[in-house]
Amino acid sequence: MDSSFWIKPGLLVFCGEAFDVSPHAHHALQVVIPEPGADLSCRFENSVVSGGVVIAAAVTHELRMSGGWIILVEPQSRLGRKLSTFLATMPYKPVNDSLVEMSRSKDPMLNLDSFFRFLDLKQDEIAEELRSDHSLDSRLQKLLSRLDACFQGECLKPSHWRASEIAGELALSESRFLHLFREQMGVAWRPYLLWRRLICAVQAMRLGATATEAAYKAGFSDSAHLSRNFRRHFGINIREATRMFS
Q: 193-238 pLDDT, tens per residue?
């Protein structure tokens, strides 16, 4: 199958061949769906799944797949909430591989239309509401919008976004900001910021940046620092990532 890649705030979709991913865990929910006839082995701590699967956030897994789809979803997005409902507190849950209708479109999202219908979502809802959560505090919505600047190629994340500085900009005390962020986002500020730095680096490499340039742009000290975090969160090193996202 031809490789294609699609990234938007709250969502990263990749389809391709020969996935060989070492054990890792990350902030996002993950959906893995093999193409028809492809081999797939998704290994968890005490079991192995050989077909399509939805994986909860922060669940360690190892993936081998000869061809298919990997979808990473922010838990706080509308799609993320639908996937969480589907999981019903389970760490992972198999899905029917036939949910994906492979098409000739170069837009991966059109190919996944059947999966979204399975979750009772329409294409326009996905495009408009990946990050649209009106229950979020307006100050956090403003912060997320700033973090999303990398999707327009305008992002430059400094090496430190201190909680005290962010809190001051949002007219909150540091303790109130940290409590509010964890309460509404379901994750602490620092690990979430690290996740967003990684997504920023992915976007930079997708737009042609070298690993060193992507590391600087996303706020990592160097490409080695970026590569270590890539392996911990995605199960691949930066060299493999560069080939995947180019």
A: 988 888 888 888 888 888 899 888 888 889 899 999 988 998 888 8
Q: How many CA atoms lie within 13 A of 188 on its CB side?
A: 6
66: helix, strand or coil: strand
The single-letter DSSP state of residue 154 is -
Q: What whole-number distance in Å separates Cα of residue 164 and Cα of residue 203?
A: 27
Q: How far apart are CA 220 and CA 92, in angstroms?
A: 31
3-state SS class at 181: helix
**CATH code that applies to domain 138-245:** 1.10.10.60
- C-beta neighbour count of 81 within 10 angstroms: 16
Q: pTM for the full model?
A: 0.84
Backbone angle region of 68, left / alpha / beta, with phi > 0 → left and psi within -120 to 50 → alpha? left
Q: Which CATH superfamily is domain 4-129 in?
A: Jelly Rolls (2.60.120.10)
| Ranges of each domain in the chain | 4-129, 138-245
